[in-house]
Amino acid sequence: MPLVETSIEQLKKEANERQAAMVEYAGKIMRLARDTITVRFRFFDNALAKLKLEPRLGLDGYMADGEYLYYNPLRLLKDYLDEPGIAVRLYLHVLFHGVFLHSFRKDKTNEEYWNMACDIAVEYIILQMGFAESAMTIDEEQLARIAKIRKWVPDITAEKLYREFIVAGVSSVAKAEYKRLFAIDRHFPRNANQKEEPEIMITEEDWTKIAERVKAELNSFSKNKAGGESIAENLEEATKRRYNYGEILRKFAVMGEEIMVNPDEFDTIYYTYGLQTYGNLPLIEPLEYAEVKKVKEFVIAIDTSASCSGAVVKAFLQKTFDILRSTDTFFQKVNIHIIQCDATIQEDTIITCEEDLKAFMKDGKLNGCGATDFRPVFAYTEGLKESGAFENLKGLIYLTDGYGVYPEKMPSFDTIFAFLGEDKNRQPVPVWAMQVILEEELLK
Fold first, then answer.
1. Looking at the DSSP assignment, which residues form a beta bridge with residue 330?
2. Residue 62 in contact with residue 71, Cβ under 8 Å?
3. What does the pLDDT look like over 233-250, one tens digit per residue?
4. Residue 387, H or E segment
5. Smallest Cα–Cα separation from 419: which of 406, 403, 434, 400?
6. How far, in Å, CA of 12 to CA of 219, rounded?
7. Are 384 and 352 in contact (CB under 8 A)?
């Protein structure tokens, strides 16, 4: 009996030693991959230093959370025997996810579409880099599929792919194919309510700094390297300043009074004491008004040229008012002008309350569809101000494709041009206006 026990213990010991050896060999492979990338692509040195390696036995493949690259040592060794480029490929794949801030885009509501778009974008760049150490047998299949994708998304970035997926949809067959060809690692859920999501120590700000450095390095000496232009284009998308639409609407907030208890002036102790002692006679009457900052007056200009369809316009208007209602930034009585315009003013609808909006959404029609000229809206709005139509107009939001004539003179109110998607051929907005690119899901 003791002999049997000794044999079992010996087997366990040998198994543990073999496992430890495999973990060690897998770690050497990953460290060699890191050094290989550092030597070839100097601009990744800071990102590589931040990203830590973490072996995890029992993990289903590979996973990264922005700070750690988790890998199953046994799976890595098996994959390495079949694909010697897997370690470098995995490292580059995860690095690009971090540098392009993919995990921090909380505005992308369709998790599956966003993950597919990100994987395709980073694999496309890796293929363009032509890095022999990252080559895999699946590369030819990836290139063939990307050639098809580029017919409807010529410049491949995660943002542009995602927009196309949202608009056109993706079949179940295509989803399976994209995941098979491009999904190297598993993605942690971006939803903060998911229990699986880790507490990430490297923040979005940290990765943004890394991205800015990579961008600077590319601009200075590395842009002409293979894949440099694609990296630069994806970095431009990643580091672009984005605005929360709700915060934008709050730029039009003004001070005003509404009938409500003012918590700063209301003393609940004396008030309650009076009611308890003298019945219905409070000692101190609460103030029945408070000065609050809410949206009261602004203009929504609608470009009624052919590019802005009725469905998109109504979705935009509905989303605008939904945001205002949900964030408690809306006065009960408002003075909002919805101005339809192409090359001339077509219609001005005045919204004073929620019922007016419902009526417009139900029965309103778009008028125009001619050429676009932004100047009439600004001239018309300035005329409304001079005539006393507004008490304190704060701003104008112009929903448009951007193909029109801008005013030369800065208006007397804040202006936001809201565009439906990116367009490199669009003329730049004047320096006095803010530009916002509306995400497709905002209008769905």
1. 295
2. yes
3. 666 665 555 555 666 666
4. none
5. 400
6. 55
7. no
- And the tokens for 67? 């700070």
Q: Would you give the DSSP letter of residue 263?
A: T
For residue 366, give the nearest of 343, 341, 344 by alpha carbon.
341
Distance CA 444, CA 276 (A): 53
DSSP state of 219: I
Q: Other CB atoms closer than 10 Å to residue 410's CB: what's the count?
A: 12
d(CA 360, CA 351): 9
- Please say whether the beta carbons of 367 and 338 come within 8 A: no
Residues in the chain: 444
- Give the Cα separation of 86 and 30 in Å (integer): 10
Lookup: tokens for 255: 């001070």
- Rounded to two decimals, the pTM is 0.61
Contacts of 17 (CB under 8 A, 6+ apart): none
d(CA 310, CA 364): 9
Q: What are the distances in angstroms from CA 55 to CA 60, 84, 142, 176, 202?
A: 12, 18, 28, 28, 19
* C-alpha angle 419-423-428 in degrees, rounded to nearest 5: 75
d(CA 287, CA 258): 11
**pLDDT of 369 higher than 70:** no
Q: What's the pLDDT at 83?
A: 93
Q: Using one digit for the tens of pLDDT, what is the confidence trace for 122-178?
A: 898 888 888 888 899 999 999 999 999 989 888 888 888 988 888 788 999 999 999
- How many Cβ atoms are within 10 Å of 85's Cβ, its own excluded? 20
Q: How many CA atoms lie within 13 A of 214 on its CB side?
A: 30
* Residue 388, H or E segment: none
Tokens of 162: 């995602």
The DSSP-derived string for 47-90 is HHHHSEEEE-TT-SSEEE-SSEEEE-HHHHHHHHHH-TTHHHHH
